[in-house]
User: Fold this.
Amino acid sequence: MESVFIRTSNLSRVYSSGGAELAALWQVSITVAKGAFVGICGTSGSGKSTLINLLGGLDTPTGGEIHVDGTCVTGLDRNSLARYRLATVGMIFQSFNLVPSNSALENVMLPMVFAEIPKAERARRAAGLLDQVGLAARASHRPKELSGGEQQRVAIARALANAPKLLLADEPTGNLDSQTSRQIMRILAELNREKGLTVVMISHDRDLLEQHAERIVTIQDGRIASDSTAGGAR
Amino acid sequence: MKRTDQIALAWDNLVKTKLRTFLTTSGIMIGTGSLICMMAFGQGVQHNVKQQFDDLGLFNYIVVSQERETSDPAAPEAAVPPLDEALMESLCKLPHVEGAYPELRFPAMVRIGEIEQFTLVQVLPAQSLSFSVVPIIAGETLSAEDPQGAVVSMGFLRQLGAHPPPSHLGASVEIRTLTLDFGLESLLKMVFSQRRGLPIGQKDYAFHVRGVSSRAGMGGSIPIRSEVIIGMQAAAAMDKLEINSLVDFFNSDTPPGTFNSITVQVDSPTHVDAVRDTLKKQGFQTFAMLDQMEEMKQGFIIMDLFLLAIGMIGTLVSSLGIVNTMVMTVMERYREIGIMKAVGAPDRDIRAIFIVESGLIGLIGGLMGLLLAWMVSHTINFIVNVVGVRQGMPPMTYFTFPLWLCISGVGLAILVSIVAGLAPAQRAASVDPVSALRHD
Assistant:
């Protein structure tokens, strides 16, 4: 039996605004096995980004619990949550979220700064990660000098900086053309397959997910609408 | 996050916004510069006053006298030794005491060559000079074998245009004393010319320059320099009014062979208290000019606080510039803060980055302010001296930069900057990463 890496129980995130309450996520309970590649699908505003933010420790739920790798994430204080983001999670965003004034290498080195890794080791490891995503030659370039696909590959390298166990990707191909999207998906699939990383990826492109994810969870109005096996299943 | 990374990150951010950094640090520079400048002026004034006191050696003296108030006739006055030669010798043997001599000075007009000056002629026993009370730089010290030989201060001789000390050795010294003239002629004049006041006469005595001392004699309760020092033997033979102060009128019953007061010269002002304690234990009444300095110090502290308060206004105003800059920086880097949080930066690291950044602004501004204060004060000093020298004033250093002022000036700039950066840094630390990453 595959070991459970992520488990959420009755996970809810309710926003209050002007006396009205809006449930972005309502009592979602899912489990993700260690080393799985799970795709999350849904329309805009369905709550899939909220789920990713909660799993990544960027947001805190208003109800329910999240357990990742045996740790109850919902019970962590702000400092421990930061430590969790630093050591356990790597995040990739639709808009890349690179620091514009930093070079590709400096962007990849950034998480290692907070992990207090010595400077020389940071540079060595960041160069290796950029090489891994095929951007060794672009290490000194700033984000605005890179294409969308290249920027996303820098973001992937940054997500891998502190050797996380969980990779969370929020629409990583949303701003890319189809060819570049396939390239990014190949990298994520390789990381999942070869490094054993657990990947949870959001995409509105169900076909893309079908090719690489082994399981697709569809979220609708903050609830799980369907949970099915996909073509990427080994 | 390591401190070196915090500094490197903060430095990078300052370099990225050069113009803003320049303007903000300029504000701190002006604030700190004016503060340091004012404090340096205060220090300069204190230094000059103290230097003048030190030059006169005023802080090294203790005047020893007998307790006069004896309401109780059975008081053990006999326990206190009389102020005589034997006591002087024993006082000279106390630790840190350079010399002890009686307070014997009389007012006189002294003429050497063309220069005539009013001074208090100091009378010293010959042995006092061997205790380095008056350092001889040329000629010889007083001697019983040469009763008319006088020691004259270099300062007096300098007025005669003498530069190398030996040039006036042997020159004649005329000392004109004041005397009470109760002769018939004087009394008749008083009656018939209805002259008011005491029957004062004058007498001239001839001396010669036997030695030259590097500084004027000083001591006792009257801070007037004694440019000429003569021996006791010669002084005893002179008619003169020996009233140094009104107190002397009350001390007129001094037994023969004893003195109204004895001046004790201590090697350093730092030892004055210890020596004075010893003297008090022996039952003597003491007076030290150092006490007056303590009162002056209180005045200086008030002056320092006043200058500090004025200087702080500039520093505090410039700190508002830092608050403004840091708030702007946090707003501009809102998304970047979100990114840092998303990749695992804890609140304390985010806070530290911004505090270190404002501290760096303070450090740079403080150092520039120190440089500015130094340049401005030297310029002012130069101009004042140019004007002053034309009007016959000696050139002076009006601003002093002790190390503590330099360090605390820059330290204050850093401290004020850090305090100014605390609120923006806290604001950065509490940024919600989800909304920051959504922010464009």
User: Anything to note?
Assistant: Chain A has one domain: 34-60+87-229.
